[in-house]
Write a structure and sequence with these properties.
The protein is an all-alpha fold and 74 residues long. It has five helices and no strands. The protein has one domain. The two termini are 14 Å apart. The relative contact order is 0.15.
């Protein structure tokens, strides 16, 4: 289940960025932590992104975190 959520989140992020940019701004560790946050149903993704200096994704997350949460757990 965690791998499925991880994969789904990558796909969502890929929609807002081309693949080469996606590889440079995200690391496997960051994605794993984001997947864990989603699994525990916490909506602190934006704050986490800011803390690890992924500021360019923080705004995207701010507007879509609620929709992401709903889509994963329908």
């Amino acid at each position: 289940m965690q791998k499925e959520i991880h994969s789904s989140y990558v796909k969502i992020l890929a929609k807002i960025s081309n693949s080469s940019k996606l590889e440079t701004i995200l690391s496997a560790t960051c994605l794993k932590k984001l997947a864990n946050l989603l699994l525990t149903l916490k909506v602190y993704i934006c704050a986490y992104l800011c803390l690890v200096e992924y500021i360019n994704l923080a705004q995207f997350c701010y507007y879509t975190s609620y929709q992401i949460k709903i889509s994963f757990f329908r």
